[in-house]
Design goal:
88 residues; alpha+beta; 2 domains; two-stranded antiparallel sheet
């Protein structure tokens, strides 16, 4: 299947469909991406109304895919590494 570029949406309040969490509308003929990239942008220097910014690319993994592909011990190590509780 060809890769597609997902679009991230945000609800204006937490009373909507996703309780305020960002979401992706996944078309019927596609699957949720197993990995997405997002850039962190932060100011690192400011002088005379000029702001220099640092851009750092991050990859975000789909935990459902990792759960399917990794053994339970490795999956729990990943969960623990990112601050989640292991699954029993």
């Amino acid at each position: 299947m060809d890769k597609w570029i997902p679009e991230i949406f945000y609800e204006e309040d937490n009373k909507g469909l996703t309780g305020g969490l960002p979401f992706i509308n996944v078309p019927k003929d596609r699957s949720m991406p197993s990995c997405m990239f997002i850039c962190e942008v932060r100011p690192v220097y400011e002088e005379d109304n000029e702001i220099e910014k640092e851009v750092i690319a991050h990859s975000l993994a789909n935990m459902s895919v990792l759960k399917q592909k990794l053994d339970q011990e490795t999956y729990n190590k990943v969960r623990t590494a990112i601050g989640l509780q292991p699954i029993k």
